[in-house]
Every structure is written in C-alpha cells, then in structure tokens.
Amino acid sequence: MQVGVLSDTHVHSLYAGMALAQKLLQGPFAEVDVILHAGDHVHPDLDSCFYPLPWYGVCGNMDSPHGSLPPQRIVKLADTQIGMVHGWGTPNGIEKRVLNSFSANDIDVLVFGHSHRPVCRKVGSVLLFNPGSPTDRRSAPYHTVGILHVSEQVTGEIVRID
Description:
By secondary structure, the protein is mainly beta. It is 12% helix and 31% strand. Strands 3-2-1-9-10 form a five-stranded mixed β-sheet, with no helix packed on it. Strands 4-5-6-8-7 form a five-stranded mixed β-sheet, covered by helices on one side. The chain is globular and about 40 Å long.
C-alpha cells in the first residue's frame, strides 16, 4: 500500500486545491491508495479535491478549530498504526513534542507538520515523518510531499516536487 502524505498546504481556494491535487495525482501520488494530511489545509474542502481517494486529516493551527478535523488521531492502515498531529511551537523541539503527545499510544509511524521541514527518520521503533510543504517551503530548500510504503515494514520517502 502507498500512502500520500501532505501537510501545510495553506490552500485558500477550492481552485488552488484542485490545481494542487491534479499536480500531485498526476505525479508523485499517481499510485497512492490513501491520503493523509497533517494539518494547515486552510480550505475546509481540500479533501474533496482528492476524491475518490480516502482522506484522513488533522487540524492545524491555521485551520478552523470548529471544523470536523480532530487535533490528533490514529489511523490504522493494513496492520500499521499511524499517529497524526500537526505540531506546535518553534521548529526546535517539535519532534520531541509530537512524540510525547503519543507517548501513551502504540504507534508505528508518527505523521506531523507545522515546521514545513521534511523529516523521515526512526526514533526508537517509530518512523517520524513530516512531508514538508508542497506550497510554502519557508526555510526548506524545496517544496515537498511524502509517500509512505506500508507493507510488513513501513518506509517513508520525501519527494521533491519542484
């Protein structure tokens, strides 16, 4: 199973969301089975741009807290437990903060965002995965998304899109 992973899209219009979805679905997400979004969607209907793929998201600091997105969640795909949270605070220390927010849970992967900096590395037994941002790179050198390859073992891939 392949999982497309996004965060920090900051899409302000449905038109911009459709353009982003088309670019990704014709490129790095052409073979994905499901989409995960780690917050800061901004436009509340961004998920519809990726229809009919299943979509799981969490609320970021730029999203409406009154929407339907939870602040964090666990998604089970195949036999893999994937924790999702947007993240908060300064980029320094964000990995520790998001890991601590799932300390009571048994997860295999932790997908997060907020920093706009791609991360794909193991911390103990957990794959820590931040896809970066496809639209707002800030201090990252490139616009990026992520792909999780879920099988007996989970691996992650950061994909440069510009």
